[in-house]
Specification:
Keywords: Membrane, Transmembrane, Transmembrane helix
Distance between the termini: 51 Å
Number of domains: 1
Number of helices: 9
Helix content: over 70%
Number of strands: 0
Membrane topology: Multi-pass membrane protein
Structural class: mainly alpha
Pfam families: TRAM_LAG1_CLN8
Subcellular location: Membrane
Organism: Fregetta grallaria (White-bellied storm-petrel)
Length: about 230
């Protein structure tokens, strides 16, 4: 096994253990006790987003690395490959968790999303290429912090609070900057560099963007309608 695959396996095991122990660390409120697995699942997702979004080797810091914007294929800062491998482990754990605890018709969108991410990030981990591209994609995790906080506040029945309203505003702002704008930049980069990429890799990247972009626009509409136009 390559070090990257070992890191993926270790990350999977670590997030699995965290998921199992979270109910003791963060007991669910009465309003969330009907759906204990989801409470644990969201807190696990928040832990992953917080790790990537606020830790010192965050994607935001890595994206300031000289030359990264010009070469997302072979250039990446030290530690970036490990960061992507850790994320693959998390997405695998979350995929298994949803598959085991939620009905397919309720989770197919996220399962589909995770499948695309696992394939694309997995290629970067195995080939040690396109790590920079995966790193840019991880910028969305900065928004995911507030997206998961929103779900936690909803489950805790704290919708009519200042905290929820403030989080909704920050969530929507970071959604535009770190999700929609990031995906648009990545799509543009793929188009401009299509002649320098192998056809199979370009096809996978294009299909990934074609799936992710509409999904994120639909989610943005749902958030806007639920939190501001309800």
């Amino acid at each position: 096994f390559s070090p990257g695959l070992l890191l993926v396996a270790g990350s999977f095991a670590a997030f699995r253990l965290l998921n199992r122990g979270l109910e003791r660390l963060v007991p669910p409120p009465p309003s969330a006790r009907r759906n204990r697995w989801k409470w644990r699942n969201i807190w696990t997702s928040l832990a992953h987003s917080a790790l990537l979004g606020t830790h010192s080797p965050s994607p935001c810091r890595f994206c300031l690395h000289p030359g990264l914007s010009e070469d997302l294929v072979g250039t990446h800062p030290p530690g970036a490959h490990s960061l992507v491998a850790v994320s693959v482990g998390y997405f695998l754990e979350d995929f298994v968790d949803m598959l085991c605890n939620q009905k397919l018709h309720q989770s197919w969108e996220l399962l589909f999303h995770h499948s695309v991410v696992i394939v694309c990030f997995g290629i970067a981990v195995l080939l040690h290429q396109y790590v920079g591209f995966a790193l840019v994609a991880l910028l969305v995790e900065i928004n995911s912090i507030f997206l998961h906080l929103r779900q936690i506040l909803l489950m805790a029945n704290l919708v009519h609070t200042t905290c929820y309203r403030l989080n909704s505003i920050i969530n929507l702002g970071t959604y535009v900057v770190f999700r929609i704008a990031t995906l648009a930049w990545m799509t543009r980069w793929l188009f401009l560099n299509r002649e320098n990429m192998p056809p199979a890799t370009y096809a996978i990247g294009t299909v990934g963007m074609a799936i992710m972009t509409p999904m994120n626009i639909i989610l943005f509409y749902r958030l806007l309608r639920s939190d501001f136009f309800k």
